[in-house]
Amino acid sequence: MTGTTSLLCGLLACAGFAGGVETAHADGMSVSSSAFKDGGLLPAQYAGANECGGKNTSPPLEWKNLPQATHSVVIKMTDPDGAKGGGVVHWIAYNVPASVTSLAAGAGNKSGDNITVGKNISGAEAYRGACPPVGDTPHHYIITVTATDIAPGSLPPRLDAAGLTVALAGHTLNGSTIVAQYGR
Fold first, then answer.
1. By CB atoms within 10 Å of each CB, which of 5, 29, 125, 140 scores lowest?
2. What is the pTM of this model?
């Protein structure tokens, strides 16, 4: 990797886990969505409900080429533009077995089989759709999938972003990101 590529990958990983665990972008590891292209617009149905224009439905995701030692994956969606640049955590999901390689639309809305949904910025254990202020430049929603060596079901329910960062220390193997934009 070149120095610029390493720096960019490091910045993207840090954006995915703001304030904590660094993940490296695995050669070959990838995350994608059938709902939007990387850097593209987030369809409205995945935005917040009511005045935000959406249905508060988590987007479909697929990840590939996890490191061989992966036991579970973590998913996190942040808006670094939110809170006037302070960042907003919209979604954290964990305890997803490595054998699961995708989530259908809405599958990450709440905890269930093979997934634990942690606390978003409002303290709710749920997916919180995009909802930037009216008139703002479209916000960037960074979705990071991180491979871990933690056994599925080992992490407790109700973790927030800070608690998840502590729990992941020393356990991340690699990660990959996809970015969507949304404005209103």
1. 5
2. 0.86
